[in-house]
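BUG: 3D viewer hangs when loading the predicted structure for this chain

Environment: internal workstation, default settings.
Expected: structure renders.
Actual: progress bar stalls at 90%.

Input used:
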Amino acid sequence: MRCSGKLLLALSGMLVAAPVAAQSGGAVEIGVFGRFTKYSDSLGTDILRKLPAENGWGGGFRLGIFLLRNLALEGDVSYGEVDAAGGGRVNHIPIHAGLTYNFPIGGKSAFLLGARYVRNNYGEDADFQDNGIGGVAGFRFGPLRIEGTIDYMPKDDPEHGSYRNLGANAGLSLILNNCNKSADGVTLAPTSVTLNPGERTTFTATAMRCGKDSPVTFSATGGTITEAGEYTAGASPGSFQVTATEPKSGLSSNATVVIREPPPPPPPPPPPVTLTRIELVPERASVKIGESVTFQVTGINSDGTNRSMTNCTYTATGNPTQSGGTFTWSQPGNYTVTVTCDGMTDTSNVEVRLEIVIFGANFAFDRDQLTASGLDTLRAAADSLKKYPGVMLRLGGHADFVGSDAYNCNLSWRRVRTVQAALRRFGIGDDRVNLVEGFGEAYPIPDDQVPEEWKRINTEKRDPGKWWDRRVVITSGEKAAGMVACSDPRMR
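Structure tokens produced before the viewer hung:
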């Protein structure tokens, strides 16, 4: 009985996974078929009961009713005669009853799979009956039905034990009262619409009953609708329905109609949009001598929107080199850029710095003394500074990350004082310097501003720190906002 349970469980799983059916519930199938039976070899040894000793041919008929979509309860009976074991003739009348599922393949074909109860009746020279379970699998091609069967008889008879008979059926079947309701229904379009009072629209509807087109009738609330589906909205605002019904099945579909309130008078036109001001960006800039800064102008409109201003005139103090909105100054100082667009003006301030950086290549690692090449670099820097005798300078010393904060603070102060002393030797007196500070390791050069070539040099020389952060900056510019020096070791 375990085989029976597994077969029924497999059939149940297939029913759940099956596609939409081709046959509908309530349909009746009748048919006739020819049958070939391959009897189990063990039956031919049962001389006592004279059971079939060879394979045989026969015929039969079937009757089925579809309980659900594609699921049929079927029964069949057939008759055949063969030679009996030990001589004589035996007739065989197998009776099958069970469930068969039709898996649709295309429009008129199906794959068949089912489970069966089996009753075998052996007569004439034999007198034996037994019961068992079985299965069926096959195909339906329109009226033609072909299938294979297996009958398992579990009785433990001492002469032949349990056995299996295999069969093949081929014949014709006719399905009656096959109203395929799988596609029955009504569709209505559009499914929703919004109208003004008195406005018209047309609805279209299609209906299927038993797989065939069928006419519909229309009904509506909130307005009127014709037989052709033309709807006219009534005077009352609100939400209403249009219904299309297939009269024989009673199937219907609904659409929503929203009738608007009468529209309010249009609002007055908005005031015209005018230009209220212009903005020159950047508002402030700080560049070195020879570096360029580019300005752009944005117009602010009366409605809060922005627009890019292009037809503008630029002027600047300090005699810079100019190309459109781009300026470059050759002298340090503080300058003003002015722009005029459509009769409006705005200004920006530009600080042009005299700036020289004495990098770590001029200091040995962990040292505050300049190398010979470092002195040469500083001598050339002093010559450049002498060209701008009126420019005041700020000196800032820095260290890299190797070492403690306190140690690097002390080292940065020693380095900046070394540079100040060398500047005195090269003719740049302390009267040109208005601020000397050490910053320790607090302000390294950001990695995205360090050239790849510098990084390569650092790797090749196996520098334990970053040589570009071991630096002294000589500049005429102001400190960046929030930049704070570390404590001067001489003042501790």
